[in-house]
Amino acid sequence: MGTSSGTFRFIDLFAGLGGFHVALDELGGQGVFAAEWEPTLNALYRDNFAIRPWSDINDLGSDEDVAREVPDHEVLTAGFPCQPFSKAGDQMGFADTAQGNLFFAVHQILRVKRPRRFILENVPNILNHDGGRTKRTIIAMLQELGYEVDIEHFSPHEFGIPQVRDRAYFVGSLDGLDGFEWPTKHKDPTDITSVLRHDVPSSRPIPPSTLNAIDMWGDFLKRSPADLKMPSFPIWSMEFGATYPYEDETPAGVWTRRSKHGLSGMHVGGSFGFKLDGLTIPDQQALIPSHARRESDFQFPNWKRGFIRQNRKFYEDNVDWIEPWLREWRPWEFHSSFQKLEWNAQGEERDIDNFVLQMRASGVRVKRPTTAPSLIAFTQTQVPILGANLTGQRRYMTPAECAELQSLGGIQLPASELAAYKALGNAVNARVVKAIANSLLDGLCDSPASPHTDHELLGAIA
User: Fold this and answer.
1) Would you please indicate which residues are annotated as catalytic (active-site) residues?
2) Residue 177 pLDDT more than 80?
3) pLDDT tens digits, residue range 308-334?
4) List of domains in the chain
5) Contact 81, 14 (CB under 8 A)
6) What are residue 135's phi and psi, to 5 degrees?
7) 10 Å Cβ neighbour count for 193?
8) What is the mean pLDDT of the chain?
9) Residues 6+ apart with CB under 8 A from 195
10) DSSP string, 206-235
11) Contacting residues for 172 by C-beta, under 8 A, at least 6 apart
């Protein structure tokens, strides 16, 4: 690539564990500035890369602050906070005063320092957020600075890494993008065993309640007839035997309409068919599934009605083997999230220990061992669990293994497992960034220092 004749300088904003730094360092770049507000990661970045990061980027309040504190550089990278744009968050976008407006801090540095290239990363939902207005706003603001901009989304599994984690990447260049090509997405199969490290055992035991839930659903799979196609919809066991209204009316509607008796006297059943006759409304509410008892739900959306309908039909068609399973395992005594199963291994042998498991609010998710679920930063409980047939025992993926999923296996991680999982869930994948940057940086060191006059640059800072 064109940078072979000399190094280029880059800055790493919202740096986290330093995925951008790892990628650009491997391409011959020199990190000259980083910003990371989380104290543990700020200190760790210094240990890993010998750069003391700036703490709060909001402290670079004025153009003069940026001009003074941020060194000149050729490449800006930023994985600006994704929570305001994520489907898993409130999707407040730029209206999120704490994080949504941090893109404007990136924009300010681009405007003042004029790096020749940039790479920005965020969740793919940013491309559709607010009906596409967020994307259009970002592109327009970058183009006003003279950058040609392009956008694509990639997942690590498209680069041979066994993790499905779709992310949107914005690239920009002051020289135009005529010679730029996005990396080719590969369709070769991946295998999670490629990142497993048997020399670093998990130090965190799986809670007994989680193990019991895995055993319960493992038995469910074993009892299912071999010629039965497992449902592609989420299995909601609380709908097995339930008969409360959901099509034209909802429990909330009945409780409002019949404020004294509610569902009592209608001869319908709640979760798992538990009888509601003779019960007070608060007692009825406790026996209606959590997805169906919100007081404001006077009409269920089509998708929810569909899942309820499909689960009740599945139970009716398979009651002969489901009923003995219900009597043995009593799933109503489990946490509500354990009462649901997401089977993402259609056509595979139904041995739950052959798979990668994830405990989610939406249920026990079972995935083929070709890829790991997307690492997320929210909670330690959603760290992937490896089935016993993959590693000899059921165990959580270790932070070191999760680091391999982010192509960050060579750096020091936070000492706390919880902090490490959270940081890895927020990290950018270094191999994906490197593949994108390889073409974007081509010829960078051979380009003139700037296509803008000194007058233009002074105007940008004024």
Assistant:
1) 82
2) yes
3) 999 999 999 999 999 999 999 999 999
4) 2-185+416-461 (3.40.50.150), 234-317 (no CATH)
5) yes
6) -60, -45
7) 12
8) 89
9) 161, 162, 372, 401, 404, 405
10) PPHHHHHHHHHHHHHHHHS-TTSPPPSSPE
11) 117, 118, 120, 142, 147, 148, 149, 150
